[in-house]
Amino acid sequence: MSHASTLSARWATLVLLALLTLLSGCERPFMESVQHGYRGTGMVQIYNPRILEARQDNNIVPVSLPPAPAEGPKAALVFKNVKVLGDLSVPQFTRLMASISTWINPQEGCAYCHDVTNFADDGKYTKVVARRMLEMTRTINSQWKTHVAETGVTCFTCHRGNAIPQQVWFRSNPQPYGSNFIGDKAGQNSPEAVVDYTSLPNDPFTPFLLDKQEIRVNSATALPTGNRHSIKQAEWTYGLMTHASLALGVNCTYCHNTRSFQSWQGNPPQRAVAWYGIRMARALNNEYLEPLANVFPAHRKGELGDVAKANCATCHQGDYKPLNGAQMAKDFPELQLPADAAPSVAAK
Q1: Phi, psi (5° rounding) for residue 89?
Q2: Which CATH class is domain 167-316?
Q3: What sign for the dihedral angle of Cα 186, 192, 195, 198?
């Protein structure tokens, strides 16, 4: 073999190794596809087994403590300053408090929310917030069955052993570097994980999960009088939909019929569930989370001074059913009551 041929063979080997190195970064193993709609519609869900397996550790549901008897003195008569759960028996109340401590902060336990020398004291902001979150949990379970159905939620659904849920959002500054000739960028071309690092607006939540902007891409009527839906609205919409897809670990066709993303005709039932979920998140952010702005300390707020808020990922965290659909809430019927359920006994 000539010297030139030897060099060519070596270069070919190097190129082959380089290509194999590049290909090693591709998705692996083979994807799994699940037909989700009528044949021929392209409504197929694509899953990566490797990613699904990696998520399992985040979906391990803790074993519930054994049910406690409802008989006996009520918590409001035995403990001081019980404003939400006073109608529970002392064993029921103690069981729920022990569960909450492991759901939210197992390292600090009761001390995360309470002054352990005076459990009645409201000096810690975490206790004030936790009380309000209990009311929020009851609201979700009792008033938003259109989204959570009978599965319901507990504190663990969002917290999963973390004092701060892993997936929350704050308002984003659309002009972090000041104004320029482009004008209002609306957060575009500043890639963030919530929109899969695309150039879409990096805060698709303020318009839809805090404000009440219409989630639209186009109009059924023509210009100039009928179409009031802007390109900016469409970009926000695509940002929100990209977030939802990532948050649930699904394709667009999980909720939409590919024939027409605008039309509701022939859509899977999940679209209606998602419709209610968007409105649930908006209601929770406005009624429970934003009003706590004066309670949270500065280090718990965003750069614009707002508190952490909920979006699809807060509960779902990459799975189309939070915790793979585990029905934790059924073991805690006290979390199924309306938020305004007043204690049936006078609190001390």
Answers
A1: -70, 160
A2: mainly alpha
A3: positive
Query: The tokens 């403590």 sit on which residue?
Result: 65
Helix axes 270-284, 125-143, angle to 10 degrees: 150
Which mean pLDDT values do the consecutive 10-residue runs of the chain (348 residues) have? 64 76 64 78 79 79 93 94 93 96 94 95 96 96 95 96 95 68 72 89 93 80 66 88 94 87 86 96 97 96 94 95 92 86 51
Retrieve residue 294's tokens.
Answer: 């004066």
Determine the Cα–Cα distance for residues 302 and 117; give it in Å rounded to an integer: 32
222-278 pLDDT per residue, tens: 666 655 677 788 899 999 999 999 999 998 889 988 888 888 888 889 999 999 999
Residue 220 main-chain phi, psi, to 5 deg: -85, -5
Write the DSSP assignment of 263-277 as a string of letters.
Answer: --TT--THHHHHHHH
Neighbouring C-alpha atoms within 13 Å toward the C-beta of 212: 4
In this predicted model, what pLDDT tens digit does every residue of 138-147 receive, in sequence order? 999 999 999 9
pTM for the full predicted model: 0.85
Say which amino acid occupies 83: K
* Assigned architecture for domain 64-149+328-348: Orthogonal Bundle (1.10)
As a whole number of angstroms, the distance between CA 111 and CA 104 comes to 12
Instruction: Check if the beta carbon of residue 309 is closer than 8 Å to that of residue 170.
Output: yes
Instruction: Compute the Cα dihedral for 203, 208, 211, 214 and give only its sign.
Output: positive
Q: What is the DSSP string of 114-178?
A: SBTTBTT---SHHHHHHHHHHHHHHHHHHH-HHHHTTT---HHHHHTT-SS-SS-B----S-TT-
Identify residue 1 by its one-letter amino acid code: M
User: Rounded to an integer, what distance in angstroms lies between the CA atom of residue 82 and that of residue 342?
Assistant: 11
Domain ranges of the chain: 23-59, 64-149+328-348, 167-316
